[in-house]
Amino acid sequence: xxxxxxxxxxxxxxxxxxxxxxxxxxxxxxxxxxxxxxxxxxxxxxxxxxxxxxxxxxxxxxxxxxxxxxxxxxxxxxxxxxxxxxxxxxxxxxxxxxxxxxxxxxxxxxxxxxxxxxxxxxxxxxxxxxxxxxxxxxxxxxxxxxxxxxxxxxxxxxxxxxxxxxxxxxxxxxxxxxxxxxxxxxxxxxxxxxxxxxxxxxxxxxxxxxxxxxxxxxxxxxxxxxxxxxxxxxxxxxxxxxxxxxxxxxxxxxxxxxxxxxxxxxxxxxxxxxxxxxxxxxxxxxxxxxxxxxxxxxxxxxxxxxxxxxxxxxxxxxxxxxxxxxxxx
Length: 329
Ligand code: CP
Ligand code: NVA
Prior knowledge:
This protein has 329 residues and is α/β, with parallel strands linked by helices. Helices cover 40% and strands 13% of the residues.
């Protein structure tokens, strides 16, 4: 399905029928109300998974991944199985999608065979290109621009720790202004929270994403800020989030990035500036000693494995809604 714009999706729409056939390429593909509804379904699935064991019977998804994955692949495949559907994984690490045949031809084949497509790609345009030609839902399982499935799981984790009302919650992200930072900014803004992204100069989030996040915050009462000062960002924060300094595909820059990003390392000294009861978050995989120290990620404040678990529940909710399954049967 063609990508919807922020303006198209800001109307509050709830109910499973409003989701069927749509894509999840950006957090902006769901309105703030739809994000809330999706997380309500995810929470219900987490509580009573057995109620949904046939919800996607007769449906199939195919996953094409140009990059490695542990969490995303397993949670989509296990999630589909738990919903009574079937998944197929295609290792696409040897060649980029679109190299063997045009994406449009791939899309016009896939829509005749399966119920949905899940893509992990380098170029974001590969995901939008597939969605533009396929009549079936396309889900972004990470592109260079966004990681919306991660952000939905992160928001469920924030809700579990701080309640549904995030209007008094400050989330600080320290590190690279990358795909994970982009989707986190959008989802926290959509939830009406306060997000501060601290990056080195030259590694800020894209201005276009920051503008989308600010537009969402203007609707929800949230707040979006950017800084180059990690200490200012984490001071008084309720959650501190970081991600790898060199994303997949940036391995050649790893040594240079390590030097540049070291002042943004989330260590015990930086984490001590947070509010009482603050949590530490990371999408994983993590590099202890680089973006986070072991005494933080392995501390009681860390909720990284709850985030990883919530990938399963939130992606099950997304698949149920987009593939038009039966909820709460
Ligand atoms: N967080 C995340 O997407 O993990 P994987 O790369 O293992 O899928
Ligand atoms: N920013 C990281 C996230 C991995 C889940 C990457 O793109 O490699």
